Amino acid sequence: MAEPLAPAPAASRPGSVRVRVPGKINLALCVGPRRDDGFHDLATVFQSVSLADELTAAPAPAGVVTVAVHGPGADLVGAPEDNLAVRAARLLAATYAPQAGAHLEIAKGIPVAGGMAGGSADAAAALLACDRLWGLGLPTEALLDLAATLGSDVPFTLLGGTAVGHGRGERLAPVEVDHTFHWVLVTSPDGLSTPAVFRRFDELHPPDTVPAPVVPDGLLAALAAGDPVALGAALRNDLAAPALELRPDLADVLAAGTSAGAVGAMVSGSGPTCAFLARDAAHATGVAATLQDRLPGRTVYVVVAPASIGFPHAGRG
Ligand code: C5P
User: Fold this and answer.
1) pTM (predicted TM-score)
2) Ligand 1 contacts CB of residue 40 (under 6 A)
3) d(CA 219, CA 170)
4) pLDDT tens for each residue of 268-293
5) Which residue is closest in CA terms to ligand 1's atom 8?
6) What is the Å distance from ligand 1's center to 194 Cα?
7) Domain coordinates of the chain in residue numbers?
8) Residue 218 in contact with residue 234, Cβ under 8 Å?
9) 279: which DSSP letter?
10) Does 151 sit in the ligand 1 pocket, CB within 6 Å?
11) What is the CATH number of domain 181-305?
12) Which residue's C-alpha comes closest to atom 3 of ligand 1?
């Protein structure tokens, strides 16, 4: 008997919608005291980088939302019922389109569990793609409201570009940046748990000693001026110390980037990815080559920032 045909990949199915969503780094991640709801007030500057996941949403029967994940680290992504993109599509359907269904296919380009909001980006992509697939045409504000209930980083990944974030990261003020910055990212084979890093932050900082968070002076001016040296000096991450306590190996990675000549070095978000700012594209290539040489076993990427969300061509019905 002939084997049943495997379903066509979502990307080639008629009527499918494809979205490219970039990962992010936090140029500043200033953390305030723990709130009663367990979250921390933040003053942060998010910026998208040119490492992206690609999500394709294809038509599926009413009430059915499925997912397939491919690419590096796909085996580290949790079960479908815990997948943030599936939860996003189900939330969108429950709120606006109860008869809708979708098959989601995710090609990972953003390191998994790397502190670069890969899971949040997939959730944002699912909202954007299913909104189009189901013909909803919702305003961005409506998608942002749903995004905020899914996770603190989901609203930013829905917008991309550059933005100042307050609250737990969901209150956003977009920032126009006309300059391109060149970064080198070094990922880690093992992930780091965001809640564990925030818990360690609390242990290091008794609540009444933590001031209200503020974006560092000079950071937005350096972005506006396109000045990588000034930006490198203004970078700040309050989660770096707790992340380094949990992962002391990251200190060697940071030191390697600084001695390779990077003009800024930091842990990205809650880690373990480390981000190094270069003066220009050629400098980034040189810093990356030195780091790849000195840090065998780690993956090194050259990226530009800010990056934006894209809707590449998808299957036409
Ligand atoms: O919002 P999200 O689900 O991404 O947050 C994951 C965890 O990170 C939270 O459960 C919380 O422990 C921590 N977190 C926090 N303060 C924030 C954002 C996240 O304490 N502003």
Assistant:
1) 0.93
2) yes
3) 20
4) 999 999 999 999 999 999 999 999 99
5) 195
6) 7
7) 17-175, 181-305
8) yes
9) S
10) yes
11) 3.30.70.890
12) 151
